[in-house]
Design goal:
single chain, about 325 residues, alpha/beta, Cobalt-precorrin-4 Transmethylase, domain 1, 3 domains, 4-stranded parallel beta sheet, about 40% helix, about 20% strand, binds iron/sulfur cluster, metal-binding, EC 1.17.7.4, oxidoreductase, 4 iron, 4 sulfur cluster binding, iron-sulfur
Length: about 325
Amino acid sequence: MTKPPLTLYLAAPRGFCAGVDRAIKIVEMALEKWGAPVYVRHEIVHNKFVVDGLRAKGAVFVEELEDCPEDRPVIFSAHGVPKAVPAAAARRQMVYVDATCPLVSKVHIEAQRHSDNGLQMIMIGHAGHPETIGTMGQLPEGEVLLVETPADVAHVEVRDPEKLAYVTQTTLSIDDTAEIVAALRARFPAIVGPHKEDICYATTNRQEAVKAMAQKCDALLVVGAPNSSNSRRLVEVGAKNGCRYSQLVQRAENIDWRALDGISSVGITAGASAPEVLVNEVIDAFRARYDVTIETVETAVENVEFKVPRVLREPA
Ligand code: SF4
C-alpha cells in the first residue's frame, strides 16, 4: 500500500537547552566521581526518560533534602531551590552540588538585589512550580508576591506602590507575560523590572520557532513532559498562533493517530528538557505511516554552553 504524503516541519531550535545539558552532566559526573548512589533533590530536569536513564545509573530522586542520607552527595535540580535548602545541607555537613541553571540563578540574584535596595518583589510565575518556589525562597517567606495572570495584578496588595520590582519565571509564554507586565506597569508605574523579561533564550527561541510554523501545520506535536513548563507553553503558543491541533506527546506511543487522520502537514518541536532521541522516535513513527518530506523551520542558531561547577571539575 502506498503511504500518503506528509510534510513534516521540524522546529529549530528545539529540545535540550544549555541549562538542562549542564544539569544532566552534573549528575553523570557526580556518579563517576562519587559512585552510586548520588541523591538528586527533585527531578533533575522534567523528563521521565532522562530521569529513568539516570536512575538506572545509580541516581536516587527524592523530593526533600530530609530524604537524603548525610553521607551521600546530593544535587539540586536545574529549577533552583529556596535558600533554606543549601543552608540545611551545609548544617548537616553534606556534600552538595547545585545544578540550578545559571539563568535561574541570575533571577535569584536580581530578586535579592532589589530586596536589598528596599523594593518589594513581585514574581510572575506559576504557583507550585519548583522554579517559582526556588525564586520566591530567595527571600524570607511572604516577601515575594506571586501573580499568575493579568487579573491577579488587580488584587495584589503591596506595601508601597513606589517601591516595587518584578522578576519572572524563565519558562513562561513571552506573549502572556507581556500582558501581565503591561498590567503591572499600568497599576504600578514606578515598578522596576529587568531590561528584557527573565524568560530565557531557550524558551524564547523555541516559542519563536513554533510561531513561525504554527500556521502552516495541520497539527503540532510538542515532545515533552506534562510537568515541563516550557513544553506546555509551546503547546499553547502553537494553538494561539493558528494551529488547530496542538498537543504534547511524551513518546511516539502517545500519538493519537485517529486525531491526525487526513492531515498533510505536521510540525514537531521539543521542550527544553526533551532529548533528541525522543524526537527521532516520533519522526520514525510518522515515517512508518506516511511518505515523509522533512522541512526545517529555523528561526535562531544557539551556541550557548554553561560550565559545570568547580567541585566536579577538580580531580577527585
Ligand atoms: S529552559 Fe532556560 S532557564 Fe530553564 S534550564 Fe533551560 S536555559 Fe536554563
